[in-house]
Design goal:
Number of domains: 2
Largest sheet: none
Order of helices and strands: HHHHHHH
Number of helices: 7
Helix content: 55-70%
Oligomer: single chain
Structural class: mainly alpha
Radius of gyration: 18 Å
Shape: globular
Amino acid sequence: MTHSVKTEVDDMTKDALLSLSAGDLDLLAEGLEYREEWRAKSGLDARSYGMVKIAALVAMDAPPASYAWQVETAIASGVSPKDILGVLFAIAPQVGGPRVVAAAPEIMLALGLSLPPDEPFDA
């Protein structure tokens, strides 16, 4: 059960939350403009930043749409598909195999690969 917190919410915050909940992508685009600033503050080069962000998506069991955008951005920053596989191997002991297995098809799709056909397991 969720509980609501009784607090004052200013009009700008309320309007932004209403826009996001309605799927206003323009508001998200404004936030994405700060991406390069956040990367610079991290001290990481663009390639490392892209790999760390993919690792974070796997760790938090992110929704499929997150992978499409982040993998594309990482590839544009010089990350190779082999690097992404390396990220999966590197984080598996910390995040667990099931999260890596769940992320693999999303990463495959983001890379433009076809998923294997469903095959029944041998009993």
